[in-house]
Prior knowledge:
Blueprint: H1 3-30, E1 37-39, E2 46-48, H2 49-65, E3 71-73, E4 87-95, H3 97-101, E5 108-115, E6 118-126, E7 131-136, E8 139-142, E9 145-146, E10 159-162, H4 171-184, E11 187-188, H5 194-203, E12 208-211, H6 217-229, E13 233-235, E14 249-252, H7 257-270
Parallel strand pairs: 3-4, 10-11, 10-12
Antiparallel strand pairs: 1-2, 4-5, 5-6, 6-7, 7-8, 8-9, 12-14, 13-14
Helix pairs in contact: 1-2, 4-7, 5-6
Amino acid sequence: MNESDDEDHAARATRAARAAEAGAAVAEEAFREGIAVETKGGKTDVVTQADRDAQRAVIEAIREEYPDDPVVGEEEDELKAVPEAGPAWIVDPIDGTNNFVRGIRVFGTAVAAVVDGEPVGAANVFPALGDAYRSGPEGVFRDGDPIAVSDRTDPETCAVAPTLWWALDDRGRYGAACKAIVDRFADLRRFGCAQATLAMVASGALDGTITNLRANPWDSVAGVHMVRAAGGTVTDLEGERWRHDSVGLVASNGAVHEEVLAAAREIEREAGD
Length: 273
């Protein structure tokens, strides 16, 4: 990477942070205000007007500096796949919408800047928790302070989380994921917000997280960038470097990655596939 690229990526990381803050402010204003809830693809796939309003606020903030860049967004008519060439932005206006509508504070706005399909800067803002994460060429930070993955090497001291939720007719894999974790590690957590989970791996609060599913880019790319910037490892189920179209997402502090990967691979076997 040359100096010009580094400056461009730093500028994109800064803009991602500002855009995420704009979306998070909209979400926070609507939190616990009795907002109407709709469903999209299933009974637990919910959306609110706050999701749409927050996404518009994010996109407006991006367009102030990058008016022509494509946007990949969860809501409305934005792109649903990450372009392989050129710059783009990936937006989740409210990650953890089920938490949001239940009045649970673990939700946030995620924005990632990508170039040629690879993230170069990202931000996750969790307004009800009072935490803002940012990653870019200069590193990864929470509320302005640098963070890093944990240094635990003994799986029996580690806490690991299943990242994504399985469909109602596929809950055998959720049970398999939980069993794979509790058989190997000290404890299990689930937060209902993939970006918050990945941010916790980046900060060392969690030691790993797993899913055998293909994660939507808005649920994953920002947090993956943070884990890597914090010194962690993120792969697919084959142990290959994770990218936005990978099957499975396995993130860890790096030191216990093989054990975390083994737990992820166990999901299919335990579910009887």
